[in-house]
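> tool_call: predict_assembly(chains=three)
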Amino acid sequence: MLTKGNLLTYLIALLIILTLNFFLPRMMPGDPLMAIYGDEALVQMSPQLKADLTERFALDQSLAEQFASYWLALFRGDLGYSYSYNAPVTEVIFGRLPWTLLLAGLALLLSTAIGIMLGIESGWRRGGRFDSGVLSGMVTLSGFPDFFLGILLLLLFAVNLKVLPLFGAEDVYSGLSGFARLIDIGEHLILPLTTLVLARITGGYLLTRNTMIGVLKEPYILLARAKGLKPRTVKYRHAGRNSMLPVMTQTGIWMGLMVTGVLFIEVVFSYPGIGLLAYDALTFRDYPVLQGLLLVSAFCVLGANFIVDLLYARVDPRVSYAH
Amino acid sequence: MLKIEDLKVSFDGESILRGINLEVADDECLAVIGESGAGKTTLGLSIMGLLNGNTAGQINLGDTNILTLSEEEMRNLRWSHVAMAFQSSQNRLNPTHRILDQVAEPLIAHGKQEKAPAREKAAGLLEKVGIEPEKLSHYPHELSGGEQQRVLIAMALVNEPELLILDEPISSLDAKSQVEMIAFLRRAIAGRMTLLVTHNLSTAAKLASRTATLYGGRIVELGPTNLMLSQPRHPYTRALLRSYPNMTTVKDLQGIKGRMDRRVIGCPFHPRCTQAIPICREQIPALENHEGRLVACHRGGIIPALSVTDISKSFKTLKAVDGVSLVLEHGETLALVGQSGSGKTTLARMLSGILEPDAGEIFIEHRKAGQPSKDFHRTVQLVFQNPGEALSHRLTVLEAVREPLEVQGIGTRAEQDKAARKVIEEVELPTTEEFLDEYPHHLSGGELQRVNIARALVLNPQVLIADEPTAFLDSSIQAKVLKLLMNLQENRGLSMLFITHDIAVARKISDRIAVMHEGRIAEQGSTSQIITSPSSPHTQSLLDSAAGLHSDTEIARDE
Amino acid sequence: MHIDPKQEVVKSKGGRLGLTLLLVVVLMAIFADLLTPYDPLAQTAQSFESPSWEHLLGTNHVGQDIWSQLVYGARTSLVVGLLVAALSTVLAALIGASTALIGGVYDRIVMRLVDAFIIIPMILLLILLSIYVDPNLGSGAIIAIEVLIGIIVVGIAFYMVRSLGWVGLLIIGPVLALIVLARNLLPTTGGLIIILSLLSWQGGARTLRAQALALKEKPHVAAARGFGANTWYIIRRHIIPDMGPLLVADFVFCVRRAVFLQAGMAFLGIGNPNVVSWGSMINDARQWIFLDAWRWWLVPAGVALSITIVAITLIGSALEPALDPRLRGEVSAQN
């Protein structure tokens, strides 16, 4: 539901992140430049650059002035400079973002859709063989950490069977273009996408199934049956539609979880999205990139929440009425 | 025509319906009345084939027993042949679909009409039940409870079913809308086979030609609606009427003692019945014809607790009671109203066996009471007019209440004390030693009368005759004693003959009134009928002299 | 409606399976010293030895015994999981109940923060925090944490034994043993435990607040207020006991999350490299994926981790009907 309250929540979330980003490095003892840029970057810097940066971040001035210049930089879209990539942080992150959006977006879409479908069928046949089978499968599946699942799939299909590529988002050196390139990208996508979908499907499935079980006891389902509707109509038109609603409200939160999942999967498959970027930045101690990533991914999650809020009002008439 | 034969339904071993036999003719509306939990809705749902419990018996719609149909056959039958206007409740309509679509859905789903004409027809029906045109594309949560109920009724009619089941069709409507909806339903169900399921007796009265009372999963009474509601024969139907708030009855509302229990062996109503006999606890009574209607009662319906035929008593030349015949039914309160000197007290004394009649006979239930015996006194007890004089000043409260037990030789002294204390508590008096040792002259008028009532009740009588029990009391105390008597009547299932000169008191506490004048019964009938349309001038004069709260100026304006 | 979490878990097939699996892992963690003669961090043989009677699962790239690492890894996973769950459940309960009961500005501010925290991508925040916050705790901090944990664990143990009877004893006994045995883990994982706890109570607080709000409206709580009971009394005597099943469920899901996050952090190579952990085993093994060693190195670690999480999930799912009455047995459709 898109309310003033939600907007406020979003703002507070951003504020927390920005404040953390600002204060965490500056609270460290020692040279704040080292805290902001990491010790390795500091070693490589020329004294001239050090002076430049100190001026830029107003590091020789009071905390309040530093805070002000921090905000000014943010408004200019300046998230700092990455020394391991030798490029502005914004550029580095936005170069990687499309891959993550492709992978995570598809995974969220597929896992929610499949979760809802299976949840509806499972709830409809509660206690039956289909239901018990899918339910226990799902519970087991949700126990596998996504990175372990990914490695297993990698071992099976890429290392041993050699049917799918080992790493990356595309074969950069093959010089493919057009449709051939699309196929190549698709092949690279299969394993990480499958892993993510498998790891994330349980939430949507369980929620839909549990809601379905509740919905099937609602008086309007008895009425729908009494009208002599086909079981299919009762299942989808009357029960299914209502069972999807809670899943939709949860999608925003799953978006946040997806960032976690996609990070591990990108590391496992060396998929060049922002998750792998975060891992590399962690390895290279490239702090500006990490801070920028936290901010950008928070923006992505907020954006997704925003869209979900807008969509939800269209699906559940009660919401648009309430506001 | 709908013919239900020996329909039994149970969930998890608990029987909800226990052998229902019903017939609804093609153009008839049959009402099924009963409390919640009686199985009314289950009956409706079983005809729709929507129960997942165990069902046995037959539900014949025309030539088909719908209980033998497959789910697919049943699905085709639903709504096109049998439709149900469900009781309105939270989430009865699907919250995510527009009401017009939900009403039109059965037409489209059963292939009766294409989408557009179906919606047109649905819109027309919705308008007829009183939904404003601009609300047709609303979602259920945008409608009031009453509007949702209208939608449900329109929905039930949209496929023009042969058999219509109405489940509490007006319960969510306000009073004015109820009148409109009843008028609409009368037109809608004319010539249609209709089963009305309700606890609202007035709906039954207005829509149904015949009515069946459902209790504990069984039909206990079935007959023409007007007869059922004016002269119920089954104790339960009468109890339902007594507890139903309406503008016809003038008596105060009364509950039904005890509560419904599905696991009862024998007659399902016997634990709450005032006239149960041993066989009621053992055997289930069959639904049999008694005086023009079907009653399931081992005793053939409500029986007289005490009756007299042609009873007379003269004192020298004065004919105090002159050929009176009167029936006091089981579990009812009959008020005997008349001016002083009309013979009420004489009649009361004869009925309670204190005075011997010159002529005529007294019956307890159907047995003739010969010489007043100890047995007779155990059944019939009298509460006297003047509480102070009716108690011996030499006996303490406890001794006075214990006295009847001593006289009858019932129990040991300890048991007698225990019974006396219990009944003293029942009449809402203290049971402290101090109070029990009080002598009558230390007690107030209200307390004295309560002691009198306790003394009358200590023998557990069937019939209580109260002779002007509140004549000597202030009006606030009178109100309390009257409430006490009504509660005792309800809780103990007493049959009470209440003698009073005040028709205003009679109006509040009695089911029936008999007006006495110069030793004869001038008029008798149901309280509401006597009060609203008296036929005897003596009744009229009693009514005219009864207390009212109109000021004289208002009376003048009325005239 | 009276809900007995013990009954729910013991009654369901999944719940029993979960308890059994978890018991195996717990026993492994408790008796780690008896199950292997080697120090999991010591170099006891050549690198990449295949499984043998000396080294049941062979050795890793620096010659450490893999079986020892697997067994001691259980200790790390469970201790982190249990302590994080204990701390964050207590936080969630206190904050959830107090916001519901106090309400007003306090409620609004705290719940707004909670909502905001739920949106922030947790793993990135964890990574960033791990860079700036030293995971190794000083001795003063360790003692403080030990005392805090001691109080909370004893409190929970008391509550579990009282409300769950023998099952409570069965659960809390091994847990106590484990925590006592694994005290030496605190200096290296204490920081992680605190960070994870501080970042995991929000969801639970929201659920518990909703429940407390519902309970607050119950007549018996209103009655207690009528006798003049104060807020703290009501939390202690009416809210917390009635929230029992929810607390148990929140605890279970916190354990699951913490076990997963600990493994994940170790997998990313964050934290003290001297902590033996299934996550770091998987990470190390991943680098040598083209050797056969993954069969007895990567797979056992991953399977152990998965079994632990599945077991906790099974217990959690068995509790679910207790929390959501809609999922309980069919109610016959009567009038």
